[in-house]
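Postdoc handover notes: sequence design on the structure in folder B. Input tokens:
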């Protein structure tokens, strides 16, 4: 039996109203315990790296991440995803996004993301359509972003309650409908109250504000676009809001801050201690927050495969 593509897997998650987590890897030793947690819980998840994780952390490069993934991967429960590849980055700098995505496709990444969300609508459409064509020519899906998921920019985040009440940066439903139709994007990252964790200075170790999701907006976006929705900034969202969001159309939940802080907080005790913390944090996301134990069988349709009864070890 051939392994289903990332496209098929996320479409199943969307139709089944469940979610696949996407775990970001800013430090290469984090990858092995994440994969082991997925194996032990029988869950499916993406292993992901964003440009900022080799620019501002220690992921190394697209090639280094791919090499480590080849060492530890388990295609019964993992696929490799290129996360945020910005057209304009968090520092306001232009990025050669096409070159990065072409490298990832040549390396065999299973899905890619272009982030044109800091561009005007038409420019975002143009950049996204370009990447969709590249990805589809390579036989993989492309994720895009519409709306403003805040948190990575320099300076303090605006008061969260005011941000949510104003709907600042939220993805517009009519724009999303037109965006997907004009670009052919397979998955759409949306802004519905979610925020990124800080990535620099003292704030990167601080707790994120307890974000919540506009479920009505999510449901309208899912109906308007018909594509799996992606939640960036999934760390720290209360479980009830997170699960309601999954029921409303979120099929992929990006998790970065929770695992990164677990690793960084224990790194002084040695790599093994830090990896243990990452493993436990990953298991908690899978079993307590998303409640997707055993999801690999459902999403890959491998009912006959191993992993039907999960055993969580250490």
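Designed sequence:
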């Amino acid at each position: 039996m051939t392994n289903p593509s990332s496209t098929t897997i996320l479409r199943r998650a969307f139709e089944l109203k469940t979610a696949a987590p996407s775990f970001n890897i800013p430090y290469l030793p984090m990858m092995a315990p994440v994969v082991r947690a997925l194996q032990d819980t029988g869950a499916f998840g993406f292993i992901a790296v964003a440009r900022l994780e080799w620019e501002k952390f220690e992921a190394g490069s697209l090639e280094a991440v791919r090499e480590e993934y080849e060492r530890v991967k388990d295609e019964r429960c993992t696929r490799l995803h290129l996360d945020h590849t910005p057209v304009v980055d968090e520092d306001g700098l232009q990025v050669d996004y096409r070159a990065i995505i072409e490298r990832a496709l040549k390396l065999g990444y299973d899905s890619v993301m272009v982030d044109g969300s800091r561009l005007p609508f038409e420019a975002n459409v143009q950049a996204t359509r370009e990447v969709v064509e590249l990805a589809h020519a390579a036989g993989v899906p492309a994720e895009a972003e519409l709306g403003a998921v805040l948190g990575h920019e320099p300076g303090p985040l605006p008061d969260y309650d005011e941000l949510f009440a104003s709907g600042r940066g939220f993805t517009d439903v009519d724009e999303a409908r037109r965006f997907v139709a004009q670009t052919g994007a397979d998955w759409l990252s949306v802004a519905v109250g979610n925020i990124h964790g800080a990535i620099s200075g003292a704030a990167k170790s601080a707790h994120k504000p307890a974000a919540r999701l506009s479920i009505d907006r999510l449901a309208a976006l899912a109906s308007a676009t018909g594509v799996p929705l992606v939640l960036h900034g999934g760390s720290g969202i209360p479980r009830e809001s997170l699960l309601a969001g999954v029921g409303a159309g979120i099929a992929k939940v990006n998790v970065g801050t929770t695992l990164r802080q677990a690793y960084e907080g224990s790194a002084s005790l040695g790599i093994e201690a830090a990896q243990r913390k990452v493993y436990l944090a990953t298991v908690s996301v899978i079993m307590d927050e998303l409640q997707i134990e055993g999801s690999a069988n459902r999403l890959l349709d491998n009912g006959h495969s191993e992993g039907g009864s999960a055993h969580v070890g250490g």
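Context for whoever picks this up: The two ends are 31 Å apart (CA to CA). Don't rerun without checking with the PI first.
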